[in-house]
Amino acid sequence: MLKLTALFAICVSCSLVLSSCEKDTESEADVVSNFNIPMTRSNNVPATTGTGRIEATLDKKSKILTYKVTWSGLSSNAVAMHIHGLGGNGMIALPVPLGPFANGLAQNITGFPAAKAGTHSGSLYVDDKVIKISDLVAGQYYLDIHTVNFSSAMFPAGEIRGQLSFSK
To answer: How far apart are the first and last CA of the chain?
Structure first.
């Protein structure tokens, strides 16, 4: 009986060790990051020298996207900043009923500096119902900055844009 109890204890210990190793592997896949998402106005008319960068992390367990946006060289002060979806690279997010969001906006970002250069950090709850983790990871969302010069109906896409993308 003592040998059976010892064997049972060893089996339980091994299964705990193996299951804890498995969880570590899963947790690495639960967080995806891209710290160098470029923001440009390439292939748009008129051209601008404005550039930027997005550092983004998506925690799939907490369903939180955190981001830091840095921009410089804009033609005029930033007046609006948004996360749009669903819109792949080079595509514009469509409003309801063609897309999931009014005006194609997943998030209207506030509190950023109204300046030609600046930095802003924020977060977005990814509910996995309307804003789906799979769409975000697949690059179907983008962040854009509109300026005084690039906010009219003539330039609705804004001055610079960065496609949110992550390694799977």
So the answer is: 50
